[in-house]
Amino acid sequence: MQAIPGICSPLATVASLGIPLTVREQKLAILPAIYTVADLETTMHQADVVVLMEFSSVDQQVWEVLKPPNLLKQAYIMERAALPNQVIYNGLGDRPHLRLSYCASRIVKTQP
């Protein structure tokens, strides 16, 4: 993986995972910062794919919102995208207490 100027972290994340960010007519929402989970809950009803950036301060609450509708298995986190020490997490059902850096993005597919 290499850093390419102009390629944002959500695109680097899905490129690393080998999956599309969206397909066909799926709606995409990007929340550049999330301060309350109400923002996420509202957006999840409007978009098929939600990207959260700068969410580490509310990650535990985000995990709780994603757990009941069983969206954790369709969620991915990438820390430090395109850097040598990047980390990708998926299958997040057993990881409610990740200690994430500020440089993390979460992609949630609200539709299978």
What features would you describe in this structure?
The protein has helices at residues 9-17, 37-44, 59-66; strands at 28-31, 49-53, 75-79, 87-90, 104-109. The protein has 112 residues and is α+β, with helices and mostly antiparallel strands. A 5-stranded mixed sheet has the order 1-2-5-3-4, sandwiched between helices. A hairpin with a 7-residue loop joins strand 3 (75-79) and strand 4 (87-90). The longest helix is centred in the first third of the chain and has 9 residues, at 9-17.
pLDDT average, as an integer?
Answer: 85
Main sheet characteristics: 5 strands, mixed
| Order of strands, widest sheet | 1-2-5-3-4
Portion in helices: 10-25%
Helix and strand string, N-terminal first?
HEHEHEEE
Question: Which ranges are low-confidence, i.e. pLDDT below 50, for 5 or more consecutive residues?
Answer: none
State the shape.
Answer: globular
How many angstroms separate the termini? Answer: 27 Å
Q: What Rg is obtained from the alpha carbons, in whole angstroms?
A: 13 Å
SS-derived structural category: alpha+beta
Strand content: 15-25%
E-strand count: 5
Count of alpha/pi helices: 3
Compact overview of the structure:
This protein is α+β, with helices and mostly antiparallel strands and 112 residues long.
